[in-house]
Structures are given as structure tokens and as C-alpha cells.
Design brief:
The protein is mainly alpha-helical. The protein has one domain. Helix content is about 50%, strand content about 5%. The protein has 12 helices and 8 strands. The strands form 4 sheets. A two-stranded parallel ribbon has the order 1-4. The protein has a two-stranded antiparallel ribbon with strand order 2-3. Strand 2 and strand 3 form a beta hairpin. The longest helix is centred in the C-terminal third of the chain and has 24 residues. It is globular. The chain starts with a helix and ends in a 12-residue tail after the last helix. About 35% of the residues are buried.
């Protein structure tokens, strides 16, 4: 990537300029965006790159649905290794949804879960901006490669760019992060130019780590495509141990039967190839890399819908 070749000073200048442009007009400028996608405004503006991810998804027509209002499919026939026996049950007023039961890369809507940390909204919407792979006769190996590719940019966003300028803990913990993001805590929107520069400089390591993470994962996936064998790469980010190969395997174990159902095919075949849906792993890989490039410094075309401003 061209950004990886820039020295830290040049990357810092680019990030500061991007943040300065986004904060023009303050948080209220982005209230129509938050309303369109169905996320709290504080969650949308918590970081510059989180905001860009949400805008990318909105430009694709994506929005969220409240977890407790969505229909849940029965997963009683799933293998025990990926099935949550409490899936679909209410516990102390909270609907339990299993890790693998509650997420599908081909789902049309992102999920807003009020019990999740405030970083989940941009992460989930980034999935919608990336799109997904599906083909009627796709093999499990192709679904595995696509599952690994489809998770890449949202995960890199979480631990990398979304930390740039953010007010929360630097290790991006999934367990200790705030469950609610307040607009007043998005200091990058209102602090002085000097303070903004210092804030971004303090979090530049996260940005660089995100670039390295993406390049390592793409190299591993390319090696898998050439060899036909899985290649595990483990990344440690704070208290998290990230193994994309294992996660993709579990996803396919849980989703392969659903993805082969005629009723799923009847829906997905109606989607145009090349925008949201991709039929070739190579084409989807290109889409993933292009989405990350656009997230960083690409032009975003989102504008408030008529009546939202």
C-alpha cells in the first residue's frame, strides 16, 4: 500500500488533514447520518475513521436493525462446537444471541445491540460496506476464504484506524470499552488544532498496526488460495487473541448448510454481482482491499437524504 511507504510524519499530516475536514460543522453535521443508519450520534462520531466507515456503509444504502426487534432463525441443528444453547432466550431483559447464530455476512442489515460496546456500530456497518461472497455452487473452501476476507476490514478497523483520535482505552478491549459513546467525549471534534495533532500522534501506532495487520492477512489468504491449505496467523491486540483462520472455519461450520438452502439462493441470486455480492473469491479479495483503501483516504459521496437534513 502506498500509505505504508510514507514516513510517520507524512502519515500524521494526512490523518490530521482528514480529521480537520470531518470536524467542520461539529457533531451536528453528522446527525442526519446517525439517523439514517440508526446509530446513536456519539457512536458515529467517536473517531474519524469510525465516522468514515459509517458514511461508507450509508452510501451503499446500509442501516442497522435493533437486535431485540429482528427475527431470529432457529439454529437447533447446528453443531455443538458453534451453537449457543441460550440463543434466542431472554435473560434479565436481554435477548441472548449466539456469536455465530447472530451474524451472517450476507445479511442486508447491520445489527445494533445496546448491550455491546460503542465500537460495534461502525464495525458492523463496515461489513455492509465491504459486501459478501456467495455463489450457488460455491465449495466450502471458497466459503472459508470468503469468510476470512469478509471479516478482515471490520476487524482491522476495530483495532487499527478506529483507535486514531479516539477517547477510549488504547488497547481497544472488547470487554472494558464503554457501552455508550457520548458526543461530549469525542474531543477530536472540538479541541484545538494543536491538541488534535497531539491526540492523533499519540494513536498513530494503532494506525500503523492496522496497515500491518491487513497486509499480513492478505498475504496469508493469498498463500491459502495458491496452496489449498489453511494458514493460521495470530494477532494479539491488548487482551484479544485474533485467529482469523479459526474464526472463518467456525463461520463455515455454522453457515454452510444455510448458504446452500434453495430459499437463500432465491434471495441472493436477485442481488447484482459486483456491488454487494461477489461470485469469485479473487473479485471479493479485490473488493476488500479497495474498501480498506477507500476507508483510509478515498472520496466519500454520502449526503443527507431529502428530509433528513
Amino acid at each position: 500500500m502506498a500509505l505504508a511507504a510514507l514516513d510517520p510524519g507524512e502519515r500524521l499530516e494526512g490523518l490530521v488533514a482528514m480529521a480537520e475536514a470531518l470536524r467542520e460543522g461539529g457533531a451536528e453535521r453528522w446527525a442526519p447520518l446517525a439517523a439514517q443508519v440508526g446509530l446513536p450520534l456519539g457512536e458515529v462520531v467517536a473517531s474519524p475513521f469510525g465516522l468514515r466507515a459509517v458514511a461508507m456503509a450509508a452510501a451503499e444504502g446500509a442501516c442497522t436493525v435493533h437486535r431485540e426487534l429482528r427475527s431470529l432463525a432457529s439454529m437447533s441443528s447446528w453443531p455443538d462446537a458453534v451453537r449457543d444453547p441460550a440463543h434466542g432466550q431472554w435473560e434479565r431483559g436481554v435477548l441472548r444471541v449466539g456469536k455465530y447464530e447472530g451474524f451472517q455476512q450476507d445479511a442486508p442489515l447491520a445489527c445494533f445491540d445496546p448491550a455491546h460496546g460503542a465500537k460495534w456500530g461502525p464495525h458492523e456497518l463496515m461489513h455492509r460496506a465491504v459486501g459478501f461472497f456467495w455463489r450457488r455452487d460455491a465449495s466450502r473452501w471458497e466459503h472459508y476464504l470468503a469468510a476470512r476476507l469478509g471479516e478482515l476490514v471490520p476487524v482491522v478497523l476495530w483495532y487499527g484506524p478506529d483507535q486514531v483520535g479516539r477517547h477510549e482505552d488504547a488497547d481497544a478491549s472488547r470487554h472494558r470499552g464503554s457501552r455508550e459513546a457520548h458526543v461530549a467525549s469525542a474531543h477530536w471534534l472540538s479541541e484545538s488544532p494543536t491538541a488534535l495533532r497531539a491526540r492523533i500522534a499519540d494513536t498513530l501506532d494503532a494506525f500503523d498496526a492496522g496497515l500491518a495487520h491487513l497486509e499480513t492477512e492478505l498475504a496469508a489468504i493469498d498463500a491459502e488460495r495458491r496452496s489449498g491449505h489453511q494458514r493460521h496467523t495470530v494477532h494479539r491486540r491488548g487482551d484479544a487473541r485474533l485467529d482469523a483462520s479459526s474464526d472463518a472455519t467456525a463461520y463455515v461450520v455454522g453457515q454452510a448448510e444455510r448458504l446452500a438452502r434453495p430459499e437463500v439462493a432465491a434471495v441472493l441470486t436477485r442481488l447484482p454481482v459486483g456491488r454487494w455480492r461477489h461470485e469469485r473469491v479473487g473479485a471479493f479479495r479485490d473488493r476488500v482491499e479497495a474498501a480498506f483503501d477507500r476507508l483510509l483516504f478515498g472520496e466519500l459521496s454520502w449526503a443527507p437524504r431529502e428530509g433528513d437534513a
